[in-house]
Amino acid sequence: MLTSFFAPASQPPLGIVIVGAGTVGGSVLDVLRENAQTISARSGRNIVVRAVVVRNIEKARTRLHPDMAGLLTDDWQAAVQRPDAEVLLELMGGESTAKECIQAALTAGKSVVTANKALLATCGDVIFDAAHAAGKPVAYEAAVAGCIPIIKTLREALAGDTVHEVAGIINGTSNYILTAMEKDGVTFADALEATQKMGYAESDPSLDIDGGDAAHKILLIARLAFGAHATMNDVPVVGVRDFKLRDIRYAAQFGFCVKLLAQAVRRDNGIELSVQPTLVPCTHPIASVDGAMNAILVRSAYAGETLYYGAGAGAFPTAAAVVADVIDIARGNGALAQHGNGTPLPSLIPADDCSAPHFLRLRVLDMPGVLANIASALAQQNISIEAIHQNESAPGQEVDIIMLVHEASRGKIFSGIKQIENQSTTVGAVVTMPIKRFL
Ligand SMILES: NC(=O)c1ccc[n+]([C@@H]2O[C@H](COP(=O)([O-])OP(=O)(O)OC[C@H]3O[C@@H](n4cnc5c(N)ncnc54)[C@H](OP(=O)(O)O)[C@@H]3O)[C@@H](O)[C@H]2O)c1
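The line above is the sequence of Homoserine dehydrogenase; the predicted structure tokens follow.
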């Protein structure tokens, strides 16, 4: 049984195979059905689902429309080879089978749409090379920041521009946690539990709270914006797992909010990549991005700063991005650049050479000479202090000292911190975060 969602258009229908009918795949089916008339009109072709592939065909699927029942199969290999399908939607997630499935589809001459950021971040070279060899697109708008059209923006709207930097809040779970800590004064553990109850965070939230998910996305952005072929090893990643409420309070005293910022920045000597809790001025629009929302700032030579805001994940925002890619392919916009800007591969700046002003929080014994010793350790690394705050305390008691230091490389900051931590008056580990002031 073939299921067409709408009346005939002048062009032949576009057959698609959907692999995965979970959160995203199920919602894609809903959008295709509910919005069939508009999608058909905008595509110039009817979109026809030829098969829906799942892992467990026996599973009860209450949300699946009855029309779809006859299309269910657990045989992705056969579905990929269907001669009546031009496009494969890989919405199963995971790496190994998803990679095989995409490669098989490209070899069979199909275009591919995927939401699988983890796969593209780790196997992007192999997949985009296969796409290039097959002369077919691999579209992946849904893989980065849900419904925010950042891939199309970089690939199309800014195609004639030179991107200097991309900085974004691209993990909704982490942003929800940081917002709850800031606004409601809750601990990290309580904020995480709330995100899990609301369905934002997985039962194993490691990829979100340890920064891996944001790193996957910034790798895809860097590939497109700069042609950078980087791997996870090239991205210094710090998540929000160990983040403390008091650092939000201390940052606020200096006029900053804390956001998990993913950055890809073009410097004179290469591309700098990072994912870290970062101080941003409370007056900057990005500081007001709260809850599970995402925002991405792009700074380019001609357009200047542009800012994109929206739901970064979730069933329907992600499905909307998947369907937009299908429409693009139906319209014949498939021959899209996959490999960044075609210029020579830029070099990647090693993590220790990445520079920024920094926030430091030290716990020390309040004794004569302590500040001088700290300043001396920093001076030995050529790090100068911009501002200091110390709470009231009594001699000999433990007290927090907060410092903002001027721009220095991450390597020098960590060497300075190591020296400070070795001083007998320092209690515990020094906390540091970069500061992003924007231009
Ligand atoms: N959820 C989001 O908000 C979101 C946002 C952006 C991107 N994404 C990405 O979208 C992709 C899908 O995520 P999801 O949340 O929709 O996952 P999900 O709810 O777990 O659904 C996965 C679907 O794939 C099917 N599947 C898994 N392994 C399979 C296999 N080996 N063969 C055939 N079918 C298989 C499952 O079948 P059964 O139903 O039989 O188990 C299920 O229908 C992932 O790459 C994810 O990173 C998700």
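Note on the example: The chain is about 35% helix and 25% strand. Residues 19-25, 53-56, 59, 76, 91-94, 97, 115-117, 142, 146, 313-314, 318 surround NAP (CB under 6 Å).
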